[in-house]
């Protein structure tokens, strides 16, 4: 309409694919120090659909009463650009009402990796047509969450539940007490373990340095938390004492070059335990926030 | 950490499939040049200071 050079093309809104909401959570001081985030649950109150609207929908779209709710973490970068990461997505039915729960643990894990001062946790919730495209119904238009729009009035506002573990109870204890023997009751700790390379037959005349090194190992047990989680990760085993940080070991070996021996430095990754921690066996490893 | 793991890691880093056949004569009198030792010490210091990702 605004250009002399182009023939205007008029369009129409044929399908409304999604409605999107932005939730803002002030996270400062929410996660206690010395704690490990176990799970973060976003709870949205889905309001009941008025009966008349339900009846009208069922006449127009029999057998199609679902919509997809998707949560994305929104990160506003320092240069003002933003990016989103898919966090969770669930189907809801327009026949349901009440609290819906979405697992946003990964969003909080991303937020924890931001540099301070940190922006609030921004969660973009969109309600989409399911399935997308002309085959889906308009059910997503009937899905409304409380406090959507000015009439919210605080009733049923979105809730963010943070499940944390106090590492003073459920974490490791650093280095073991060299004077105390390790028993079943010993809490997860890092114990000295010396590896004597000179005592290894294959290293003879090959490994020049070091003669040996302190590798450490993680010993002891971890306290198991009692509370059930809102979302149970299916492969979760007990909390175990593991090497959560390791470092490499440089060695000098003799290699043959042109029939003559020549010393060379090689770095062996993950040879030494730097830190022991209690971690759930089978828990997903949090994604690292890419720059 | 087992002996086998250490050997496996060394062979992998050197792209070798087995331990090279070296005898005492090969290494007797072998001097580690200063630049190699400096490289070794630098890596050692870095590994004591650096934090790796770990699991």
Please tally the β strands of chain A and state the result. 14
Please state roughly what percent of the residues of chain A sit in beta strands, choosing from under 5%, 5-15%, 15-25%, 25-35%, 35-45% or over 45%.
35-45%
Structural class call of chain B reads mainly alpha
How much helicity do the residues of chain B have? 55-70%
Please outline the helices and strands.
The complex is a heterodimer of chains A (291) and B (55).
Chain A lengths: L17 E8 L9 E12 L4 H10 L5 E11 L5 E12 L4 E6 L1 H8 L8 E9 L9 H4 L16 E8 H4 L18 E3 L2 E3 L10 E3 L2 E3 L2 E3 L19 E19 L2 E21 L11
Antiparallel strand pairs in A: 1-6, 2-5, 2-7, 3-4, 3-6, 8-12, 9-11, 10-13, 13-14
Chain B lengths: L2 H11 L10 H4 L6 H16 L6
Characteristics:
heterodimer, A: 291 residues, mainly beta, four-stranded antiparallel sheet, three-stranded antiparallel sheet, 9% helix, B: 55 residues, mainly alpha, 3 helices
Report on this model:
The complex is a heterodimer of chains A (291) and B (55). Chain A is mainly beta. Chain A is built from four helices and 14 strands. Chain A has helices at residues 51-60, 105-112, 139-142, 167-170; strands spanning 18-25, 35-46, 66-76, 82-93, 98-103, 121-129, 159-166, 189-191, 194-196, 207-209, 212-214, 217-219, 239-257, 260-280. In chain A, strands 1-6-3-4 form a four-stranded antiparallel sheet. In chain A, a hairpin with a 2-residue loop joins strand 13 and strand 14. Chain B is an all-alpha fold and 55 residues long. Chain B has helices spanning 3-13, 24-27, 34-49.
Give the structure's gist in a few sentences.
Chain A has helices at 51-60, 105-112, 139-142, 167-170, and strands spanning 18-25, 35-46, 66-76, 82-93, 98-103, 121-129, 159-166, 189-191, 194-196, 207-209, 212-214, 217-219, 239-257, 260-280. With 291 residues, chain A is mainly beta. In chain A, the strands form 5 sheets. Chain A has a 4-stranded antiparallel beta sheet. A 3-stranded antiparallel beta sheet of chain A has the order 5-2-7.
